[in-house]
Structure to design on (375 residues):
């Protein structure tokens, strides 16, 4: 079987809508699952919701050793309120840019992984094995990965993990964790002309937001991932302008680093707010921080140095990935984030990836897979 062209496959995936919510990653999964199965992979499908499949594809090695695992997600974020200047699902190529929702985050990475894996399978089975975990629902908190990890026997016993999230093909040894919280503040409603008869919940939320603006975590900065951060993404409250609002909420985005536990972070923030305020977790995933001295990571760094023309230094990502779930599920294996997309274009209007980086990623993934299969 001839491996498909990675750019054409990226275009095909971009043209298949998988905006989350609602997700509906089924069409992407069927396309990729068919390609991998035809190439000799054993493909299993696991749905965490209707039309929301994740795929696990395996190519066993001759030595029976745990495989190298490539992973990527099939869903994308919504288009946003700002109008696009190009059709978000046409996958139009203009010069070196391929436009479309999900082009950078991360359908180009998925396409490059699948093409490299098919080429590796066509070259023949080696001593090491190869696996691909293609997930649904990453954008809303690693839902598909959590489903796979909770099944017990769906995931292979991988020995290393490569995540194809956008990094401009620069290898990253980890990323921050994410804790998305909703803080609820309660008041007492009254007529807007008599605010003294009520208790204005929006004021409480506003005070809470100002406390967060001034708050600094006690955790020390990580040598690679840096400082933890807090962002107040939303403030909502009230139903109409002439009533005292009796409920208001803050949407809080915390990015954590090693040395912080998400439970402890929740306790810290709860103590900042007035008694009676509630704090609910919406997304709760951990950080990933691999040792740059790991032999496999050093091997990948060497391959990237040849491709990029510079020796990589240990760096991390500020965003989270499915590695938050998969790395601990695999027993804390060495993990790298390495993908052709542009991190600065993720979730943006007129999102694009670079065609040249897709080709480069196929070569890198192919070299990484070939080294592993020869082990």
């Amino acid at each position: 079987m001839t491996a498909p062209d990675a750019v054409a496959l990226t275009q095909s995936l971009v043209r298949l809508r998988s905006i989350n919510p609602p997700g509906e990653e089924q069409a992407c999964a069927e396309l990729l699952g068919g390609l991998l199965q035809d190439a000799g992979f054993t493909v299993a499908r696991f749905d965490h919701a209707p039309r929301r499949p994740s795929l696990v594809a395996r190519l066993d090695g001759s030595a029976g050793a745990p495989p190298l695992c490539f992973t990527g997600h099939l869903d994308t974020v919504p288009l946003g309120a700002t109008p696009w200047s190009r059709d978000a699902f046409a996958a139009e190529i203009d010069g070196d840019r391929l436009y479309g929702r999900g082009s950078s985050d991360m359908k180009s990475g998925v396409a490059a992984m699948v093409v490299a894996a098919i080429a590796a399978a066509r070259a023949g089975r080696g001593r090491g094995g190869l696996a691909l975990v293609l997930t649904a629902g990453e954008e809303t908190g690693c839902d598909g990965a959590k489903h796979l990890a909770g099944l017990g026997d769906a995931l292979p016993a991988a020995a290393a993990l490569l995540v194809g999230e956008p990094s401009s093909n620069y290898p990253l040894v980890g990323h921050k964790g994410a804790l998305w919280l909703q803080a609820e503040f309660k008041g007492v409603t009254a007529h807007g002309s008599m605010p003294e008869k009520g208790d204005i919940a929006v004021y409480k939320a506003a005070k809470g937001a100002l406390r967060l603006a001034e708050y600094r975590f006690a955790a020390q900065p990580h040598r690679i991932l840096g400082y933890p951060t807090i962002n107040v993404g939303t403030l909502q409250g009230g139903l109409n302008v002439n009533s005292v609002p009796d409920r208001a909420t803050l949407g809080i985005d915390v990015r954590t680093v090693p040395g912080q536990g998400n439970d402890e972070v929740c306790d810290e923030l709860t103590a900042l707010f007035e008694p009676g305020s509630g704090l609910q977790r919406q997304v709760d995933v951990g950080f990933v921080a691999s040792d740059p001295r790991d032999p496999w990571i050093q091997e990948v760094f060497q391959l990237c140095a040849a491709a990029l023309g510079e020796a990589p230094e240990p760096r991390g990502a500020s965003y989270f990935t499915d590695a938050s779930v998969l790395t601990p599920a695999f027993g804390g294996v060495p993990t790298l984030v390495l993908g052709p997309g542009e991190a600065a274009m993720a979730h943006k209007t007129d999102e694009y990836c670079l065609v040249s980086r897709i080709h480069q990623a196929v070569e890198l993934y192919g070299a990484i897979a070939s080294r592993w299969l020869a082990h």
The longest strand covers residues 177-186. The CA atoms of residues 156 and 328 lie 13 Å apart.
